[in-house]
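Residues and backbone
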Amino acid sequence: MIRTKLLTPGLGLCLLSTAVFAADQSPQGFLARSLFGNSLEDHGVLVHGWGQAGLIINDNDTDDVSKQGFFNSDEGFNLNQLAIAIEKKVASNVVSRATPTPAPMPDSFDWGFNVTAIYGNDANYFKTYGWDEDLGVNDMRDEDEEAFNVAQAYLELYIPALGGSNLMLGLFHTPLENEIGFPLPAPAPTEFYTHTYSFMHGPAKHAGALYSFKLPHDKGSNIWGLELGAVQGWNNIQDPNNDIDVIANLRWRSSDMSLWIDWENIYGNGANDSFAECGCGSPFPTATTPGEDAKRYQTYLTISKPLNGANRIALEMSYGEQEKSALSTLVNGEPTDAKWYGANLNWYHRVSETTTWNSRFEYFNGEDPAHVVLTGANVGKAPSDWSYGEFYALTSNITWFPSPAVRIRPELRYDLQDSSGPNAFGDGTEDNQIIASLDMTVYF
């Protein structure tokens, strides 16, 4: 009932905005401009949103589409995200969480903000412990798969220091990983409907501070950027261990911005920051006593390069480890550390101004049972039924923009598990799966 009440008017407004959308306007903020005029945007405030929904089918006799690579869990229709964002961007030569730019450093202090609210299946992944996990719509005991949260709420300050600096304060989407969780249009790296194993193993968001700055450079030289963060762990505001996690990211850009190299890291105490009752916090439970530490480290190295005007590739490598992993300990019968690692290669081919063909090959080693979703522990499976091992995935899609406000993607994905342990797919009955999906995103 909740789905019907919210989906019908929500997507109705999306489609209405598309029907009257003018080709010479940006789709982002179009609905707000239609209702309230340009007064907000004249002051630098953008009110915009998106609606994303998809259909998914698999090649086995179950409804399970395996959340290893998805925010969704079942075949059929999924309302992924119905979102609204209110933001004011800072005037800066640094894009926080993304990149330094060749632009000269602005001389004046500036400020901005972002508040983003999401309803849908994906919102379960963006719940924040101590913030929105206990809202009635997020009660895991009901049969509704959709959730609601305020995924971002931060203040951003531009400071004319070093080569240009941004300071984010509040709740913000993680600066780690090649992909992001919001289906924003390019240049946001969300070319695929499904996600990688490495993406699902990383944090979704943080509460705290992130300082992004560009190192001074001469015109025409390579560009360096650094990010330093102090955050309250993974996906939480209240953290029982009360230790601060540290983020340290290094970003290098060639002088013409054609080659990007990013090294992203987070390190901290992961003890007791996974909360089964709300399905939120970190996805890595620990076997620790009160006051005992369990260090967690996650790193990503991403290299992105255009080959020519029509082709671009991106390679992401990841590694993570968790001390005193609860799931590994239960399987091995003694306190055990866990590690996971992998790589994915992405190829993006522009067919036309409105169409791209995207493909991704992934390898991921999850032989240590550590992640609650990958193992199946989140749905109550016993340790003897937990899935783990080496995983391979091949994904390909066509991304088509019939208008700047609408994105349509048919996608095909094949997953294969190499393991002597329990099967990961088809509710534990298969070691491989084929998933076909079709999703549509409307920007307004």
